[in-house]
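Hi both,

Apologies for the delay on this - the queue was longer than expected. I finally got the S-adenosylmethionine-bound model through. Below you'll find the protein sequence and the ligand SMILES exactly as submitted, and right after that the structure tokens for the full complex including the ligand.
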Amino acid sequence: MEQPPKPPRIKKGEQVEMTMEKFADRGKSLARVNGYVVFVAGAVPGDRVRARIFKRKKGFAEARLLEVLSPSTLRTEPRCRYVGTCGGCKWQHVSYEAQLEAKRQSVAEALAHQGGFDAASLVIHPTLGAAETYFYRNKMEFSFSQHRWLTPDEIASGTSFDTDFALGLHVPGNYLKVLDLQECHLQSELSVRLVNGVRAFAKAHGWKPWHIKAHHGFLRHLVIRQGTNTGETMVALVTNGYDADRMQQLAGHLQEHFPEVTTFVNIINTGVAQTAYGEAMHTVFGPGVIHDTIGSYRFEIAPNAFFQTNTRQAERLYEVARDFAGFQPDDLVYDLYCGAGTISLFVSAAVRQVVGVELVEEAVANARANAKANGVTNCTFVAGDMLKLFTPDFVRQHGRPDVLIVDPPRAGMHPKVVKQIAALRPERFVYVSCNPQSQARELGELQDLYAIEAVQPVDLFPHTHHIENVIKLRARS
Ligand SMILES: C[S@@+](CC[C@H](N)C(=O)[O-])C[C@H]1O[C@@H](n2cnc3c(N)ncnc32)[C@H](O)[C@@H]1O
């Protein structure tokens, strides 16, 4: 029988028209063209688009969006002028309902493809959305650079810009250039004023931003942290060296023009790595920390301390974890990968004892201090690597848990930790994750031992593709 002719291969550089089918990895959308799966950033399922292929591999290609020929009904008007250029929130042009459903879908797909579960038979609740979809972050880290990235609008305006100084966010895929942000809808109106105010002050005083490639200059990062529920505000300026006079000048400026700032710290980073952490810290004014509350607990937040970046939705996340755990007053709970002990403290009143494990010593010190400051006496925090610590000896020492809560980093748990969970097999198990892929893979390995009772995605990061997901498991009898 005569074979139908093969569709023509798509080529790099070629312009293609296609209708986008669904959301895919990292917030892109995908379409199928001539047997290829084509990924397009900025496109939305339902869009008819024209795009140029810039990468072609075996079976898939990537294309740059050139024109939306017919827009999807899932589209909405973005609020920010930098959408499409800035890496901060790539889904502003997608309606919030569609974002939430896309997140639920991606959890279901991860469970099916990575975990081998029959997703249709699982109870996967609709994603718990945020009441505030803008100005929700309590922390932002802005970068200084001697290389300013100009947006297409800025170039088209014909205005000449000072491109040697930028304070803002990196554009995706470019470590050198920084978008000079005049507006941003992620943190707060105060945060935007601070960015513009610090930039203007630094420029007026001739302070040089960091040269990311040649490693010279003074100003490296501006970190702004705010207590959502307390209103306390920290400005942390990361510089390449300590200059007491300059810090006093900026302190005076902040106190005069930004009375909302409760503390100002200067972090020194003389290393080449682009990080807001440093080798020394000076508190210029205020206590050097801020506070925020989750539930009835108050947390102290140091400049570099880990704290969930969306306070209100973190509380929703912890409520889901607490409800899924079905606590009894006599329960012994393990909170593994506990950070600064926020989940431990949040659930402490409902149970007999919580044992938290965390790698970072500073976070464990914070956890202990937070427990003490809140008058919580039934939480024990242990510092160390889960891989080495989580052994039968550890269980002999601290007792067999009734409930296990885990909240590992993106990479997930070490396979040996998963094996140890299988050996220990507490009846109730709640898995909180910021990476549904690794979560599904690990739970796939535990399928014979644990049944999934419910799945609840929670949206902590509106307008991005990031998801937090909580899974309720019960040991099979
Ligand atoms: C997603 S955070 C969890 C934070 C905490 N549950 C919260 O909500 O604030 C993951 C934590 O795991 C810790 N961690 C990473 N690898 C670890 C390991 N091998 N052993 C113990 N803790 C680890 C990190 O330092 C981090 O604090």
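Main takeaway for now: The CA atoms of residues 410 and 435 lie 5 Å apart.

I'll put the files on the shared drive as well.

H.
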